[in-house]
Design goal:
Blueprint: H1 4-22, E1 29-30, E2 35-41, H2 47-56, H3 87-90, E3 103-108, H4 112-123, E4 129-132, H5 141-156, H6 160-176, H7 180-199, H8 205-211, H9 213-229, H10 231-262, H11 283-306, E5 322-326, H12 336-348, E6 368-377, E7 380-390, H13 393-404, H14 411-418, E8 423-427, E9 431-432, H15 439-463
Antiparallel strand pairs: 1-9, 2-3, 2-4, 5-8, 6-7
Helix pairs in contact: 1-6, 1-10, 2-4, 5-6, 5-7, 5-11, 6-7, 6-10, 7-9, 7-11, 7-15, 9-10, 9-15, 11-15
Length: 468
């Protein structure tokens, strides 16, 4: 009978499988963290018409030009004139493309599906073109390359069930997180597992496995690579690794159970003649399959770069240059620092002399505004000066907190979501939300390491006069 100890690996493998399936993701290309952009070229539709269509399809809390209000004001002087160079005037640029031809709206990313329906309905109007900064569609190519490589290894396997069980979780990982670095890492692990499964159950196979640089590097290098790309992806790789180990243990327990069930007093138990020490870890077959691995990794690298580093971006030919977070050197639009300075000028306006008005560029750290009041002191009325406002970190934090309490879909909420020090400008291509940081560099490393180990193996064989 199975004991709990023997059943546990099977239960663990099921749990890992459920986690991989439950937390699957699709890369979505988008400019803004937490928001999708809708851009609309139209001759007939007004902003209200567009908002009505968005609401009808389920889009809520849309940030648009017409819904903006004055976010900060002084209770003493709530109405103030704004110059053309003020933050309030310049923030309007966020609601237009760079050429001022397309209207721009910001929709919370949880309404992405509703946005797709809205775009189809908007585009049906004559003289109207609508689009978005990203599209959530399944990127088949990288997982398909991984499964083709699996089929190649499977065809050369002499323990097909064992190899399929050990590789299964990495096939699932490739499809549940269809990223190029994930698929490349899965290919490396499957090659390492192929080398391991040929040693499996031979005498000293565990010791040889733990001392083999080929198996260890191919199976553990992806963890380090994925940590640079995304710690979450590295965690899911480790989960798949755990599932693979659990499935191998389950396979062993099942085989032991069948053998025990069929064993009689005079049963013959075959033993592998060659120990793991006598069996080549790589060998001729391994070095040839390594070349297949390099082809698969190179194919993934090429597709990654040809696709523009975006796993699922379907860009329209009419897509304009849209407002977007950019590097500080590419900044063209106002940011939260400008908003804070504008807020300072707004709340301190009633306390400054008309002829002594300062501009945002003149504000200095630690600058203060004082109020003179008069109090009764005995039989005299004396002036008393108190500090009302100080331009410092405390003032900035109070401004940021005031953004969070605004009761309408404010553009400042969008800006704050990107980070207090973010800069903004224009861009015409987006990055993926399931971002593969340093993608090209990491994929090159995943190619370079197997190539170096292959060259080292061939050089070592030739050095000692052995054939490959």
């Amino acid at each position: 009978m199975f004991s709990i100890k023997k059943i546990f690996p099977f239960v663990l493998s099921l749990v890992v499988l459920l986690v991989l399936l439950a937390f699957k993701t699709l890369p979505v290309s988008q400019f803004w963290k937490g928001y999708r952009i809708l851009y609309v070229y139209t001759e007939k539709l007004s902003e209200n018409d567009i908002l009505t269509i968005l609401e009808k399809n389920g889009c809520e809390n849309t940030i648009s030009y017409g819904l903006q209000k004055v976010p900060v004001s002084s209770p003493i002087s709530p109405v103030q004139t704004q110059s053309q160079n003020s933050y309030i005037s310049l923030r309007n640029e966020f609601f237009m493309d760079k050429t001022h031809r397309a209207a721009v709206f910001y929709i919370p990313e949880e309404f992405s599906s509703a946005l797709e329906h809205s775009i189809k309905e908007l585009s049906a109007f004559q003289g109207t073109v609508a689009g978005t900064d990203g599209k959530s569609s399944f990127p088949y190519i990288a997982p398909i390359i991984a499964i083709v490589f699996f089929i190649c290894l499977f065809s050369f396997s002499n323990k097909k069930l064992l190899f399929a069980l050990g590789s299964f979780f990495f096939i699932v990982l490739s499809f549940s997180r269809p990223l190029y670095t994930i698929s490349s890492s899965s290919c490396l692990f499957m090659f390492a597992f192929f080398l391991f499964h040929r040693l499996y159950l031979r005498k000293d196979f565990l010791k040889i496995t733990l001392n083999s640089p080929y198996i260890l590097i191919f199976s553990l290098l992806p963890v380090l690579i994925l940590l640079f790309s995304s710690p979450l992806n590295a965690l899911f790789y480790c989960l798949a690794f755990l599932g693979s180990v659990a499935s191998v243990l389950s396979y062993k327990n099942y085989c032991d159970y069948i053998e025990e069930k069929n064993t009689t007093e005079y049963s013959f138990k075959p033993v592998l003649i060659c120990s793991a020490r006598m069996f080549p870890v790589v060998g001729r077959l391994g070095i040839r399959l390594l070349s297949f691995l390099l082809v698969a990794l190179l194919a993934i690298f090429i597709v990654f770069n040809v696709s523009g580093n975006v796993s699922s971006f379907s860009q329209s030919s009419s897509m304009p240059s849209l407002p977007s977070p950019v590097s500080a050197s590419s900044s063209e639009l106002v940011n939260l620092k400008d908003f804070v300075k504008w807020s300072w000028l707004s709340v301190t306006f009633p306390y400054r002399k008309i002829g002594n008005m300062t501009s945002a560029s003149d504000i200095k750290e630690g600058e203060s505004v004082s109020i003179t009041d008069y109090v009764e002191n005995g039989s005299k009325i004396v002036p008393m000066t108190t500090t009302a406002y100080v331009f410092n970190d405390e003032f900035r934090e109070n401004v940021y907190k005031s953004i969070e309490t605004l009761d309408y879909p404010a553009i400042e909420k969008l800006l704050l979501r990107q980070g207090k020090n973010a800069s903004f400008g224009y861009a015409s291509s987006a990055k993926t939300s399931s971002s593969e940081k340093f993608g090209s560099i990491l994929l090159l490393i995943l190619i370079a390491v197997p190539l170096a180990l292959g060259i080292y193996y061939i050089w070592g064989r030739k050095r000692y006069g052995q054939s490959i």
